[in-house]
Amino acid sequence: MSQNIQLFLIILIFLEIFELFWQRGKNFRDYVGNLFYFYKKGVIFFILLHPSLYFVIFAQMSFQNYSFLSSLLILIKFLDISFKMSLMDKIYKKKDLGAFAPLLKANYPLSIGIKGAGLIIYPTIFFFAFN
Fold this sequence. Notes:
It contains eight helices and no strands. It is mainly alpha-helical and 131 residues long.
């Protein structure tokens, strides 16, 4: 693996840690509330708080790697942000909890595995896509 890819992987890990810290919450209700705190400041601001998406796009263009895995990584990150925005819209604007009602009402704690899933999944896909 070249040094550039190693550096990019380390930067991606730090960006994922940043996202992990601002999306914190002890339980699902706190997690959603924290997401909404930033979402209500503005949709653009909320999207900008996901720098790993832009970094992966930059890496894809820098290495001119338009493989299936690198494109899949961008798609997954985009769908993640879209799902969070849809969740915020559904819960706070439409007041329709839908399938999330049991999770919000039961107040289940979030495990470290759920919280850190992006920290494992995204760098792993990045490693295989760019290596």
